[in-house]
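In full, the data.
>
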Amino acid sequence: MSEVFDGYERQYCELSANLSRKCSSVSLLSDHEKKQQQVTEIKASVDEADMLIRKMDLEARSLPPNVKAMLLAKLREYKSDLNNLKREIKKISSPNYDQTSREELLESGMADAYKASSDQRERLTFSTERLNQSSDRLRESRRAILEAEQIGGSILEDLSQQRETLLHSHAKLHDVDNAIDKSKKILTAMSRRISKNKWIFGSVIGALLLAIILIVYFKLHRH
């Protein structure tokens, strides 16, 4: 569902409910001047409602097909509701409306003839229901946004902890590399010393063998 469409829908439902109430109240006015003033205000509100429906239509047509079909069906109900309001306003603004209403009152003999008509009550109920539905959707959207923010915060916290763990592991690996390098240097030095000692030891043994050979040689020649 589109948040932009929901916003337009909420404004329209509020405006439609307000128009229904105004139509009901203006039909009770006996002062012609006040009545005309109220009708002018109602017509301005109807123009605003028309603009909201056009905006909803444009927004709905920009959405994916499955969502668009559902919203366009809803728009048809709103357009029908608004057309009924326009007919009611046209009827109220008619010069013969007061006389016609009085004649209908006399003919019906009903004391509540000036009360809201059945269509107006239906529109008011319809608008109120739509307004409640829009409010529910807005609350659900806010809840989803809050949950998404909490999940996002938790993910960021986990990533931060993982980053610290990786940095700590990297530092340990660096220390291990340094220790390995030092060990290699020590082993290389020891290998060199061992090789050097082998040569010295071999030289000493060679010298001793040579001395022994010379001693034996001299002893044999003297006899």
User: Anything to note?
Assistant: The chain has a mean pLDDT of 78.
